[in-house]
Amino acid sequence: MDPNRLKGKNILITGAARGMGATNAEHFAEQGANVCLGDIDPDEAQKVADRINERGNGKAIAVKMDVTKREDNAAAVAATVDAFGSINVGLFNAGLNKPRFFMDIDEDNWDLIMDVNTKAMWLGMQETARQMIAQGPQERPYKIINVGSIASRKPLIDVTVYCTSKYGCLALTHCGAVALAEHNITVNGYAPGVVVTPLWEQLDKDLVEIGFKERAGQAYEDITENELVIKRVSYPDDIKGTAAFLASNDSDYMTGQMLHIDGGWCIQ
Ligand SMILES: NC(=O)c1ccc[n+]([C@@H]2O[C@H](COP(=O)([O-])OP(=O)(O)OC[C@H]3O[C@@H](n4cnc5c(N)ncnc54)[C@H](O)[C@@H]3O)[C@@H](O)[C@H]2O)c1
Questions:
Q1: Would you say the CB of residue 195 lies under 6 angstroms from ligand 1?
Q2: pLDDT, tens digit, for every residue of 40-94?
Q3: Distance from residue 147's CA to the centre of ligand 1 (Å)
Q4: Going from the N-terminus, what domains does the chain have, and what CATH number goes with each?
Q5: Half-sphere exposure at residue 84, Cβ-oriented, CA atoms within 13 angstroms
């Protein structure tokens, strides 16, 4: 690994207290980036930041933010700039899931998922782009990275609202790429399949509770057998290389792309 690959990149990551956000933050810092870890759980985010700072190379700060609030997004961007001098990359990763069959969806389920996964992405993109535009042109593009999902392209009957929210992330990636190109901001994303994180561990339990699966672990097994081309589920370490590629100058000529890192699920 090149410890200077992301040198000079100051990166805001939402939802960075655990799961893929935390792994990406550590991986970015190992390659020289400075990272601001925004999360609704500031204590856990601070632990990740402490680990990064103890290790050396890129620096880290943690900020408490509720991504659904515009003022928290603006404050997280400002904290990144205060700590590191500017912001070059925004990774909009915070997200959640709460499965429901189509006819059982209610307004609370809809609002919860759409607010955190989609509305918050728009807010984060907008507040980050506002700061990038104010900073003025830089030689290499500014970068926005959105976390989609296999659910950005596949209708899954147990998680309609999650699919709607993640198709929305794909639309924000396409629309943002077109809208922000004149400011030298690229907008790309990546789309995992099944990644073993606290989100999926909760989902595994919830799928039993709504009656979609009979026992814990069955969802992992069924998806691996029936959906995945590569016959195993993934871990945050499987995802971090693609996230780092999108944050790096290696992806400078890409915009409007959502890269699938899903073991081939999207072609099944
Ligand atoms: N785990 C998977 O299989 C999978 C697959 C495809 C896409 N994704 C997406 O990847 C992203 C990361 O997922 P993960 O599996 O690492 O999840 P995770 O639950 O492990 O981590 C999500 C983080 O987001 C934070 N968060 C939640 N609501 C927030 C809010 N309102 N404000 C600020 N922070 C908030 C949580 O505190 C947590 O630290 C999500 O967007 C998720 O939808 C996950």
A1: yes
A2: 999 999 999 999 999 999 999 999 999 999 999 999 999 999 999 999 999 999 9
A3: 9
A4: 10-193+236-263 (3.40.50.720)
A5: 27
